[in-house]
Structure formats: structure tokens, C-alpha cells
Amino acid sequence: MSDSSQQVTGGPGTDGRVVDTLSDGTRIKRRRLRQRACDEKDAKGKLCTGHLKRWYFFGEEIRRKYGPEAEMYRCERCKTLYLPNPEEEPRSGTLCW
User: Fold this and answer.
1) For residue 75, what are the CA distances in angstroms to 37, 84, 93, 95, 96?
2) What pLDDT digit, counting tens, does each position of 11-23 carry?
3) Domain for residue 25, yes or no?
4) Which one, 13, 18, 75, 89, has least CB within 10 Å?
């Protein structure tokens, strides 16, 4: 039985904010404060800079680990997943004036 919660270390695309790695290899990272673009690096060391969009259609593995109503963001280019920054207000609710 493999442990999928190991942090990835070493290599050009690594980051200390990696929270988890899914069984298919998708990395889950923690967003920085007010982060809107992906900061994942490819094999050449270039930034992805894809837009982070709220993602609602995640699979069963994410539901088990983070709950069915998890606030999750996904890069539109490289498909890296991001959890919200704990210092920011959740953006899950409706807007009130």
C-alpha cells in the first residue's frame, strides 16, 4: 500500500508549499496570499502562469481527503490543484452588500 501524502522533494518543479500528491501524480499546493496565477515550474524551470479557477468537479479521492464541499482551485494549463490560503477569507459564500 503506497502513501500518497508524501511531499515531493528535489527536482526543478518542487515547492515547499506542496501539501499532497494524488495517486495519478497531480500535485496539491497551498495558494499564496492573493495568488491568481499558477507558479508551477516545468522541467526547464519556466513558470506555467496559468489562471487559477475555482474547481467544483473533483474526484472521489479529493472528496475523501478534503470533504465534499472543499474549496479547491485548479490551474487551467497544467492542472495543478491549489487549496485556499488560510489567511484569506473563504470565497465560497454569496456576496452581501
Assistant:
1) 8, 13, 21, 24, 28
2) 444 566 899 999 9
3) yes
4) 89
